[in-house]
Amino acid sequence: MAVHAQAKLDAPKLRADFPILEQEIHGKPLAYLDSAVSAQKPRQVLDAIRTFYETSYGNVHRGVYTLSERATEGYEGARQKVATFVNAPQSREIVFTRNATESINLVAYAWGLSTLGPGDLVVVTELEHHSNFVPWQYVAKRTGAGFRAIRLTDAGELDLDCLDEISADGEVKVVAANYVSNALGTVNQVERLATWAHEQGAVMVVDAAQAAPHRRVDVQALGCDFLAFSAHKMCGPTSVGALWGRHELLAKMEPFNLGGHMIRAVNLDETTWGDVPAKFEAGTQPIAEAVGFGAAVDYLEEVGLEAIEQHEHELVAYALERMADVPGITMYGPAPERRAGIVSFNLDGIHPHDVSQVLDYDGVAIRAGHHCCQPLMQRLGVAATNRASFYLYTIPEEIDRLVEGLHKARKVFG
Amino acid sequence: MAEPPSGTLEPMNEFEQMYREVILDHYRNPRGHGAMDDPDAEAEGMNPLCGDEVTIFVSLAEDGETIDDVKFSGRGCAISQAATSMLTEMVKGRSATEVATLPKEELLEEIGIPLTPIRLKCALLGLGVLKVALHRAKGTPLPEEWAGLDDEFQVR
């Protein structure tokens, strides 16, 4: 990847690309501070999908007619863009899926079920989203493998001191961890975990759903074996995501979904599988969505991943500083240097539902709940937290409005 | 969009409607909050959306049918706490059979605020748990929407 000086991101200008941000909620301009759950979509992506449907749509890898070829070109072109985006050595190592959850399930089922067994260990972390926790817990139970979670420090970071303790318990076969925590914003040391996993002879699975939209992700630099992410969190459409996997692993794996397109030959007594990635793409794929995914990659590259990361770093530092002054606030997660644009907090004695309801009436959208991280909530000793998350279109004024809303919530419920 | 109510200098906005004084009063001073040592009926439940939990305790009068007292404990948002608090007042003195078939609309009318589908779940958590408690203790029927939840109640 060429290193080049990148212009600072101009969020007020980028906002003009997002039609949804032009509206008012309860008479106030919308301040969308929930991009960690899903990002808004710029015109460039919406236009790409519409243009594709209007000019190039057909099913892919099917017909010999021009439209089908055009559609195939759009779909495979998107695969190439997504591959380049994460610095995959080969574009065939990108499998299109429905989302990061399906990507992880694909690995858990197609790799895990036929590889794991009694005496083996499946290692996750206490910081995982349910999507990178539940599938592993399930296949561990199904195969008789042990299941361990790397614990968290009080600062909300992975406690890597417990690794030796874990590996003493059995043969570690897979380590699954997120790159950036959706609940706390912690940026995890996945390179270090990948090194440890390989020392144990295990594969490293990275959930990059919360990283890929916000910072440069390079599968070769991370040293992982599988990496999962979703288009919808990175300004792309819903219903499409990607799994990157090392070709030698993907080639050896069992299929996941079975049906059309994933086969080499079907006979009455036997079916053989197609090559990677076709083996994992049964049935009609989210074709236009994949094209939109490619357009989202183009958009993020145009803005610049380094600029996005820097912008969010400034926002999170500003938010942590401003929010620290709110009486009765508890902040979760690490220092701004080691976190992405996510701020998780609670107001003493005020339920997150009520906080977010108060904010909604001021047009400020934040998340309240367990963020699909119940093991983490148990570790923090809370039922739920509030979470504000930022993206390339977030401006400091929206954080000011968040802070005003928190003072208001205290007034109403205090 | 509906016209705001007229006739006052400052019409109640949606926010003030939702967190009207009676809701805040029940939230700040919940009636029947606490545990019960030897309840005649008891159940717990949760809202899987937010992880909120509530436990309800019921004591019955000597006739074994009339609800003498109801208490609740747990954690929840203002809507769920206020709704459960109002519920304890509503059902005291009524028969278990009557409460088992109490339409949720009656509670929602008492709460008296517009609720989105998500907040509706908050408001109905306590009612569901109460019905499960009576079902367990007295065998009263569970409403169809909560069928099969008598072991582990969740609003849905």
Structure, explained:
The complex is a heterodimer of chains A (414) and B (156). Chain A is of the alpha/beta class and 414 residues long. Chain A has 14 helices and 17 strands. Chain A has helices spanning 11-15, 43-55, 66-85, 100-115, 134-143, 163-167, 190-199, 219-222, 247-252, 287-303, 305-323, 352-360, 374-380, 396-413; strands at 24-25, 28-29, 31-32, 94-97, 120-125, 146-150, 171-178, 203-207, 226-230, 241-245, 263-266, 271-273, 329-332, 342-347, 364-365, 367-369, 385-389. In chain A, the strands form five sheets. Chain A has a seven-stranded mixed β-sheet with strand order 4-10-9-8-7-5-6, sandwiched between helices. In chain A, a hairpin with a 2-residue loop joins strand 1 (24-25) and strand 2 (28-29). In chain A, helix 3 (66-85) crosses helix 10 (287-303). The longest helix of chain B is centred in the last third of the chain and has 22 residues, at 117-138. Helices cover 40% and strands 17% of the residues of chain B. Classes of the chains: A alpha/beta (414), B alpha+beta (156). The A-B interface holds A 26, 351-354, 357-358, 361, 368-370, 374, 377, 383-384, 412-413 and B 13-15, 18-19, 24, 27, 49-53, 75-79, 119, 122.
Characteristics:
heterodimer; A: 414 residues; alpha/beta; Aspartate Aminotransferase, domain 1; Aspartate Aminotransferase, domain 2; 2 domains; 7-stranded mixed β-sheet; 14 helices; B: 156 residues; alpha+beta; Sufe protein. Chain: A; 4-stranded mixed β-sheet; 40% helix
Q: What percent of residues of chain A are in strands? A: 15-25%
Poorly predicted parts of chain B: 1-9
Physical arrangement of strands within the biggest beta sheet of chain A:
4-10-9-8-7-5-6
The number of domains of chain A is 2
Largest sheet of chain B: 4 strands, mixed
Report the CATH C-level class of the largest domain in chain A: Alpha Beta
Sketch the major β-sheet of chain A.
7 strands, mixed
Large-scale geometry of chain B = globular
| Name of the CATH class of chain B | Alpha Beta
* Most extensive protein-chain contact, per-chain counts: A-B, 17 and 19 residues
Class derived from helix and strand content of chain B: alpha+beta
Estimate nothing, just give the exact number of structural domains of chain B: 1
Shape of chain A: globular
Number of helices of chain A: 14
Q: What is the average of the pLDDT values of chain A? A: 96
Number of helices of chain B: 6
Mean pLDDT of chain B: 86
Instruction: Evaluate the radius of gyration of chain A.
Output: 22 Å
Helix residue percentage of chain B: 25-40%
Write down the Rg of chain B.
16 Å
Number of strands of chain A: 17
